[in-house]
Amino acid sequence: MADKSMQGLVDALRAKRAQLEQGGGAERLAKQKEQGKLTARERVAALVDAESFEEFGLFAQHRQSSFGMADKEFPADGVVTGAAAVDGRLIHLASQDFTVLGGSAGEVHSLKVADAMQRSLKTGSPFVFINDSGGARVQEGIDSLSGYGQVFYANVLLSGVVPQISLICGPCAGGASYSPALTDFIIQTRKAQMFITGPQVIKQVTGEDISAEALGGADAHMAHSGVIHFVAEDDEEAVYVCRRLLSFLPSNNLDEAPRLPTDTSVDPNPQLNDVLPVDPKKGYDVRNVISGIVDQGDLLEVQAGYAMNMVVGFARILGRSVGIIANQPLVLAGAIDINAANKAARFIRFCNAFNIPIITFVDVPGYLPGVEQEYGGIIRNGAKLLFAYSAASVPKIQVILRKSYGGAHVAMCSKDLGADSSFAWPTAEIAVMGAEGAVEIVFRKEMQNATDKAARRAELIEQYRQAFASPYIAAGRRLVDDIIEPAHTRRHLAQALEYLQNKRDQRPPKKHGLIPL
Ligand code: HXC
After folding, report:
1. What's the pLDDT score for residue 389?
2. Ligand 1 centroid vs 77 CA: distance in angstroms?
3. Would you call 429 helix, strand, or coil by DSSP?
4. Which domains does the chain have, with CATH numbers?
5. Is the separation of the CB atoms in 123 and 65 below 8 Å?
6. Which of 42, 192, 235, 422 could cross-link to 168 by cystine, CB 3.0-4.6 Å?
C-alpha cells in the first residue's frame, strides 16, 4: 500500500526524481564515463552557475506503443531541458542523454527541445543545445521526423533574435546535424562525429573508404568543411568555450553585450610601431597586431583553423565587445578566397544582428586568382563580403595596416561601404593594384621600347610606388579619415567606439535583402 501522507508522497517524489536523474542507468552512465565523456547532466552542471538550473520536463514520456515501447519509461525522454544562469545571465538549454535510447530524438524529446527554444525567444535569452544522439528515434518513425522539423523551424525563428550555440559532444548523425547547422556557433569535441551520411553509406554508394573520424571529426569540420567554429578537446573544454563565447554576446538582439572591467587604459603601445616587417613583401601574423591593441591581448578566434587567410573573432576595447575581422598576411599573403569571404561575411552578419561593433584590419593584396576560384564562384561568394559589410548598420571601423588593393580594398569595410571611421597606418598602400602589376598594364609599350628594359621597369615601379604606396593620396580624397601612429591605435579605436555608441543607421524598409547565397 503506497503511503499517501505528505511525508510518504515527498519520499516517493524524491525517489522518483533520483531514479529519473539516473538517466539510462548506472551501466550506461559508466560506459559514457569510460569514453571520457561527461553525462548529459554533468555537462549542464559544468555549463551553468551553481544551483541555477531549473529543469522542465523531467517526467515527460514518449507516446509510442509499438516496438515494445508501450510500457517502457525513458527518463526525460532522453533530453534534459531547462533554464539556468551563466555568469548571472539567463540562458535556456537542452542536453541530449545518450544513455537513454542513444539520446535518440523521439517526438516528445524534440518537442521538449522546441519548447525550451520558445522560452528562449519569449525571454530574450541565448539557447544552448548540447548534442549527443543517434539521431531520429527509429521506433517512432515519422513522428520523430516531425519533432525534428519543429526544432529546425524554431532554430529559424530564433535566428537573429537570440544567440544560438550548439555543442557537439557525441554522435550527431543524419538530419540531426541540421539543427546545429542552423545555429550561430558550433563547438565540437574531439570525441564527437557529425555527418549527414556515415562512412558505411558512403562506401556503399560511392566506394570511398574513410573513417568516421576523418569524415566527421572535429578537425575535419574545422579544416575542410568549415561547418564548426571551435574545436574542444573534451566536454569540459567545450563548456568552457561556450561560457567564454557567451561572455562576448548580448542576450538578444535588443540588448548590448555586457561591458566588463577588463582594461581601462589607452596608453600607447610602442611595440606596434615595429610590428610590421621592414620588407613590405614579407608576411607577419596579424594576430600580433590585434593582441597589441585589444584588452589584455585577448582574442577569441572563431573558425581559427578554417580559411586562415582571414582572421575573425571577438575581443574587447575598454570592456566593450567588438567583432574583429583581419586579413592574415601569413596565409595566401592575406588574399581573399571563397572560403575567407564566406567566413567573414557570416561573422559580420552575426555581429550586426547582435549589436556588436565591427573593427576591420586591412592588409590585402586582392582576391585570390585561379581557375578553381572562378569556377567555385568567387564572384558570387566574394560578393557576400561586400553585401555583409554594406548591410551592417552597427559601428564599423577600418584600420588599413599595409596593402589595400583593388576590389579587395573596397570589400574590406571601405568608407564607400559605410565604414564610420577609417584609420591608416603610415605603412598603408591604397591602390588599384600593386606597383609591379600596375606598370605592366600602364607602361607595357614604354618598357618594350626602352633600351634597358629591366632598369626602366624598376624606375616605373618606383615612380608608381612613390605616387600610390602611401595613405596620403587616399587621405587627401577622404577615403581614410586619419593617418595614425600605430602605437596609438587603441586610443583611436576606443574614442571611435565611444562616439559611435549611439549610431543610428536607417535603411529603406523591405522584407529582407538578397545576399548572394
Ligand atoms: C533509436 C537508437 C538510435 C536511434 C542509437 N540507439 N541510435 N535508438 N533510434 N536513432 C540506441 C541503440 O539501439 C542502443 O540501444 C543505444 O542507443 C546505444 O547505441 P549503440 O549503437 O550501442 O552505441 P554506439 O556503439 O556508441 O553507436 C552510436 C551510433 C549508433 C553511432 C549513434 O547507435 C548508430 O549508428 N545509430 C543510428 C544512427 C542513425 O542512423 N540515426 C538515424 C539518422 S537519420 P541499447 O538499448 O542497445 O543500449 C536522422 C533523420 C533526422 O536522424 C531527420 C531530420 C530531418
Report:
1. 98
2. 14
3. strand
4. 6-248 (3.90.226.10), 270-428+480-499 (3.90.226.10), 434-469 (no CATH)
5. no
6. 192
